[in-house]
Amino acid sequence: MLTLHHLEYSQSFRILWLLEELGMEYTLKLYERDSKSSLAPADYKAISPLGTSPVITDGDVVLAETNAIVDYILDKPGSDRLRPAAGSPARTRYLFWFHAAQGSMQPMMTFNIVLNVVKTRVPFFLRPIIGTVFSQILSGFVQPRMVALLNQAEKDLADGPWFAGSELTAADIVLSYSMESASMRGYITDKHPNCQTWLKRVYDNKAYKVAQQKDGKPSAAFPV
Ligand SMILES: N[C@@H](CCC(=O)N[C@@H](CS)C(=O)NCC(=O)O)C(=O)O
Q1: Is 224's pLDDT higher than 90?
Q2: What 3-state class would DSSP assign to 61?
Q3: Angle at 179 between CA 129 and CA 171, to 5 degrees
Q4: What separation in Å is there between the alpha carbon of 12 and the centre of ligand 1?
Q5: Ligand 1 nearest atom to the CA of residue 69, by list position
């Protein structure tokens, strides 16, 4: 049976939601982050070929990388209902957002988290200078990219309740973690009403709620 190795406050929450959304049978193993480094613990790193979360095991298969895991699961017989049909307009939107989530938005959020964590760990007398440098990185690099992504999200979500249109797809599931991170870090504001409504829709989703219960944490996203 497929086992999801779920690291707390990590991108694997999306795989938990996906499995619940599909109503698939699976085993869930929960892992806590290392209290000093906030990274995955040694027993988690021993499973994942990249040492990162998410990772699944399924018989002899060990698979890391969020979107590879999503496609692996959706390729299972009877599970292909969260990808719009090839050639449909919804498919093009789906492809864009499924890949923009992991290729563009999540890297910005991870970068943001890393800067925040580093800032709290440098000697206090270096913090003002480090803080200034990091602010410049955030305003010159992260902020413009997030503005472009969220402006596009606002536009696309004006056409339907979900990123690919009328139906929930795996793009929404993958985006959920990054969009929650963006909201927690103040990138999603009142200027993004469609994004705010979409996030509410995600939190109201039945399978998402079950995933939250199984996860047991106040948020899916890393809270720093
Ligand atoms: N591109 C990878 C990114 C994975 C990643 O960086 N995961 C973070 C959790 S959000 C992680 O494993 N952090 C703990 C660590 O690096 O030890 C994916 O989509 O799976």
Answers
A1: no
A2: strand
A3: 135
A4: 8
A5: 20
Q: What is the 3-state secondary structure (H, E, C) of 71-111?
A: HHHHCCCCCCCCCCCCCCHHHHHHHHHHHHHHHHHHHHHHH
Candidates 79, 217, 178, 63; CA nearest to 54 is: 63
181 lines ligand 1 (CB under 6 A): no
Question: CB of 102 closer than 6 A to ligand 1?
Answer: yes
Both 95 and 166 in one domain: the answer is yes
**CATH no. for residue 38?**
3.40.30.10
Contact (CB, 8 A) for 207 and 170: no
pLDDT tens per residue, range 59-115: 999 999 999 999 999 999 999 899 999 999 999 999 999 999 999 999 999 999 999
pLDDT (tens digit per residue) in 29-68 = 999 999 999 999 999 999 999 999 999 999 999 999 999 9
| HSE toward the beta carbon, residue 120, CA cutoff 13 A | 9
pTM: 0.96
Burial of 132: CB neighbours in 10 Å, binned 0-12, 13-18, 19+ = exposed
Residue 222 maps to a domain: no
Which domain does 8 fall in, by range? 3-82+210-215
